[in-house]
């Protein structure tokens, strides 16, 4: 089985969030299970490793001024990583306001580059809207395709009149049943419409996006895909070697709940916290993640908890947390800091995720791996991964709902035997990629192999 994944980021070479983690883990496990796997992503200026350049030239399919395209390669862990270079991707950072234009160029380059290199996979697997155009072109080329929604909220939309000329697609591809969405071009919709099978990153989220509350205006299409048997949910896995308290170089390693006490003491000392238990979160600062709910709940939370937050994003939420960091029981570290995130996952007692929606989520899996019990809203992947006898789940979206769940966690923490039992169960849960990878390979096989 020859599989080519296409996505906008891939750990450890480029990463801004969970998508990069998925493309850093799933392909390697598929390769270990016998598949021949390639991953295609942009050649950003800030890649963490320099690929070996294997081709440079011009592709008429990319159009416009016939821009120069270059291709780099890294082979690692049984996976061939290909990086497509275009001048639009030489800026600092991964994402920019004109990304629909940038990923339209990238989307037109992928299939020609694969052909140049003699790669004709049994299945092309595109991830999120940045790969939607690639899936459309692959379908029109007669390739079998899978498209995975990592977050339906982000759809790659642009004014249709202007953007239709960027795509290289025929005119019939811009109707309301194809890429047009309320007068815009939607690259997400391109992936959804043209893929042979559509997956999302948890079974519960696959059901939620068929409803107006979570469907982002595409719920009608999601219902149709479900009725056609083309939409399903496969829960993400976790890189259990990268996130392993038994040999994590960023902490004093431990293998059981008793050994966690040292990590808690270290985090308490690092942030100068008092003896109250530690409630933490590592998150993008966004309304989707419920960070406004957490901030509004702080006056009551700090009566019982120290609160530690690591993350960046919305300027207003960031400013609010900077202000709250003056409180002796609140610690806030702005931005992404992977070593610190390991220390937080290990050193907190409980982990808050009051997400309004959560397609899958990795933080709750990581926290349980480290014996840190999650307090989560009942939505998406949080429902599918947090057992009710391990974490603390709540249904509402108000600060009072979060506070009530944290109060239950606090009371349980005061019953050491119950808390230890939950921690033990949490640390024994299996979140490896083996199961999800096997499900994906079965899905690919169901599409058949190329002739």
Name the average pLDDT: 95
Largest sheet: 9 strands, mixed
Cα distance, first to last residue? 12 Å
Q: Give a count of the beta strands, DSSP E runs of length 2 or more.
A: 18
Low-confidence parts: none
CATH class of the largest domain: Alpha Beta
Multimeric organization: single chain
Our estimate of the beta-strand percent is 15-25%
| Radius of gyration from the alpha-carbon trace, in angstroms | 22 Å
Helix content: 25-40%
Could you say how many structural domains there are in total?
A: 2
Strand order of the largest sheet: 3-4-5-2-1-6-7-11-12
Number of helices: 16
CATH-assigned fold name of the largest domain: Rossmann fold
Looking at this structure, what is the CATH superfamily of the largest domain? Glycogen Phosphorylase B
Judging from the principal axes of the Cα atoms, what is the shape? globular
By secondary-structure content and strand pairing, the structural class works out as alpha/beta
CATH architecture of the largest domain: 3-Layer(aba) Sandwich
Pathway: Glycan biosynthesis; glycogen biosynthesis
Catalytic activity: [(1->4)-alpha-D-glucosyl](n) + ADP-alpha-D-glucose = [(1->4)-alpha-D-glucosyl](n+1) + ADP + H(+)
Enzyme class: transferase
Keywords: Glycogen biosynthesis, Glycosyltransferase, Transferase
